[in-house]
Amino acid sequence: MKNIKKILALLLAAALVFALSACGSSNTSSEAEKTSLTVEDGKLIMATNATFPPYEFYEGEEIVGIDAEIAALIAQKLGLELEIADVEFGSIIPGVQSNKYDMGMAGMTVTDERKEKVNFSDTYAKGIQAVIVKEDSAIKSIDDLDGKKIGVQESTTGDIYATDDYGEENVTKYASGNLAVEGLKNGKVDCVIIDNEPAKAYVAANSGLKILETSYAEEDYAIAFNKDNTELQKKVNAALKELIADGSVQKIIDKYINAAE
Ligand code: GLN
Known about the structure:
It contains ten helices and 13 strands. With 261 residues, it is of the alpha/beta class. α3 (66-78) crosses α9 (230-245). 37% of the residues are buried. Residues 10-37 have low confidence and may be disordered. Glutamine (GLN) binds next to loops.
């Protein structure tokens, strides 16, 4: 009897060593092969692009904003530690697809094309594509955009719609909203198409600019997940539902948007 127990213990130990070594090798093989980190090390890794005030931007060394604060509350509810990765907007979806990041939260608009690549959470905010021009611009409404030079942030819906509607040759793609606005100030482009809240922040921070009254497109923001990670998607949706119901989400939005107006 004792021997059987010993053999069982040895087999168990061998199985454990095997399992651990298998884990080790998959971790070192490649970033792309990682399965969701969430369950494994208690972290929730959110990819964003922190040039998008008031949703995500730097305050000193720290990334703050509506998305950062909502994500922190979601992580708290899930018992996970939030880690924010600041990457180019166009790298967020590929990084979520390869499980480099657990989720993408970046004032990201739900589109049919993106839905083919990632799953989205429930919507937590609305966005509008706005047009920024110089105060003395000849562009008075979106009907005047034909043949004009349009600046956008690469891979955003502003980029996608403008390229579709006005042609690749009329659209200059910048790596960030900041650089697009610089392009407008320097006369490299005649306008910038970008989400309305960042547009307001850019106009407030730069003199001589204004936002056209007619907006370009209305959209829903949501959080992106790997298509295989429906468990995390469900948990985040449940947390989000509670945070919307108890007024926490509205409180954060008010802190960054309504209070500032
Ligand atoms: N809402 C836009 C999009 O999803 C822009 C997002 C952003 O620049 N962070 O494409």
